[in-house]
Automatic annotation (TrEMBL):
Keyword Signal: yes
Region forming the signal peptide: 1-25
Residue intervals of the DOMON domain: 108-227
Positions with biased composition (Polar residues): 37-50, 58-70
Spans annotated as Disordered: 29-94
Keywords assigned by UniProt, alphabetized: Signal
Native source species: Allomyces macrogynus (strain ATCC 38327)
Pfam family, one: DOMON
InterPro entries named among the record's database cross-references: DOH_DOMON, DOMON_domain
Protein name per UniProt: DOMON domain-containing protein
Claim: Signal is one of the keywords in the record: yes
Length: 331
């Protein structure tokens, strides 16, 4: 007698038969369903990325937090706009005196010469370069990257100095948000036939972002450069920004060099005393920052006194000669 299968065995056999057609079916090329367009929360560590349509926030370290209101918009933190000028020089120009210690050094080819005048807490920089200069820059340091730079140029008919910071890869120096240099005189110097940039700065400016302390008790390493031609400088490029006078744009320099000024070197001290352009720190006047062009260049500061004395002496000689001639005719 054959035993009949149980109900459980029949149910198991039936499920196997139903599974066979499904296993043998040919797969269809149906595309996978699209993910939900809703962005999930998270952060993207990147910069210069557009915010998603769903909104988001940019954190201080440049990360973008996805999510939030669809109507929210945020400007990336690394905007290309230059930073605002936050501070101007707070010290006053110091008059030059015969007792002020000074020294003068030039590059090997005499393209650049720099005179330093030590007034105590303030130092005068007097730089001169060829007459075709349109801008003239001098920086503390031995290389462009990290140098504490001051550039001198003409802006709307006046001599201006701009405090800047040197950057790597031969890029133009960036404008320092805290300006720490005051113009003394600049422009074409008629007496020497050289383009002059003279300014003063504190030995210690207190600006920890890019400024270097100046120790005149030791040799001072400097880099210098100038640009020539009308295209060498663009003073109108940033006139829509705050303090545009400090923001002129420069093209690549025509010449550059390095030198060391040592106020303890007797030869450099003698060179400073003998140089006409070293006397570039006159008693401050309302026009101390004006361009030194034409006759005004030769008669700025101590040069003005010398020129006045020479003119007065010639006038006395002419007057005496005229009186003597008149007396001779009468007699």
């Amino acid at each position: 007698m054959v035993a009949s299968p149980s109900f459980g065995a029949l149910a198991c056999l039936l499920s196997l038969l139903l599974a066979v057609p499904s296993a043998l079916a040919i797969p269809q090329n149906n595309p996978a369903p699209s993910p939900s367009p809703t962005a999930k929360s998270g952060t993207i560590s990147a910069t210069n990325l557009p915010l998603p349509n769903g909104g988001g926030t940019v954190t201080a370290n440049g990360t973008i937090s996805v999510g939030g209101s669809k109507n929210s918009t945020t400007t990336p933190t690394n905007s290309t706009s230059p930073p605002p000028i936050t501070a101007l020089p707070t010290f006053s120009l110091t008059p030059d005196t015969p007792t002020a210690k000074r020294a003068r050094a030039c590059t090997a080819d005499s393209t650049f010469c720099v005179t330093l005048i030590d007034h105590g807490t303030v130092v005068t920089f007097a730089i001169d370069a060829p007459a075709d200069a349109k801008w003239l820059a001098c920086g503390l340091g031995t290389k462009m990257d990290g140098a504490d730079i001051v550039a001198g140029y003409m802006y709307d008919g006046k001599f201006v100095v701009s405090d800047r910071k040197g950057v790597p890869d031969h890029k133009p120096p960036t404008v320092d948000a805290k300006q720490d240099a005051l113009p003394v005189r600049g422009g074409m110097d008629a007496a020497s036939g050289r383009w002059v940039s003279s300014y003063q700065r504190m030995k210690s400016t207190g600006d920890k972002d890019g400024d270097l302390e100046l120790d005149t008790g030791k040799p001072v390493s400097l880099i210098v450069a100038y640009g020539a031609g009308d295209a060498a400088i663009d003073v109108a490029a940033n006139k829509g920004l705050d303090h545009p006078e400090f923001r002129a744009k420069f093209t690549k320099h025509k010449a550059y060099g390095k030198l060391v000024v040592d106020l303890n070197d007797p030869k450099q001290v003698a060179a400073a005393s003998a140089s006409a352009t070293s006397a570039a720190a006159p008693t401050p006047t309302a026009g101390a920052g004006a361009a030194a062009t034409g006759d005004a260049a030769a008669k700025t500061g101590s040069g003005a006194v010398s020129a006045w004395r020479a003119d007065a002496a010639r006038a006395v000689v002419v007057t005496v000669a005229g009186v003597a001639g008149a007396m001779a005719l009468v007699l």
